[in-house]
Predict the structure.
Amino acid sequence: MFDLEGFWRTTVGIKDTGTLAALDNNSYIKNLEKGQRVIKEGETVTEVGFIVRGVLKAVYKDIFGKERVYCFGYIPGEAAVSVANLAVGVKSICSVEAVNECTILCVPMVCLVKLIHNNIEASHVYSRMLSMSLRKVIEHNKILMICEVQERYQWFRETYPGLSELVRKKDIASYLGMTPESLSRILKEVRKNIETKHGNTAASNL
């Protein structure tokens, strides 16, 4: 059986007993299949999911109607929704979709807003999560502006360890602002360098 209180206390960082009781009474587990959408871009957010396991991606449509990857979420406790702020009636700025089989813990928006307004600890947790999200967006935009495609991929590998094996290459390319063909060339170079390195190591051991 899933430990709701343990998740809120240990993973999210909530310690206040009253807040924990409110979250326990109002939250529920939702299992998502691969490709299942949590919410569509422009829909009103009625509940917020928090990642328990699995990988999610947030996508939006650009001015040409083409779908672009905005970000990935896979850290337990991370919010599985894309909004500028938590408020009743707010709309999602992206569509959120499960990359693989996922489990999220859902809480009604009304409940979260009430807790954030009335409880200092919940407000601090929300502020911390918002700051982390903003920092990720700023760093991502900076990488796209100043880095070459090879450097962008290296940054992705270092920032999201292990994620390149779970996410489609097409989505990685979209997130890094490059074409799938450019990413394929980078991956070929990476494999070639690895093979060369291993070959040199084997030769030196002869």
Notes: The chain has two domains: 4-146, 148-206. The longest helix spans residues 120-146. The mean pLDDT is 88.
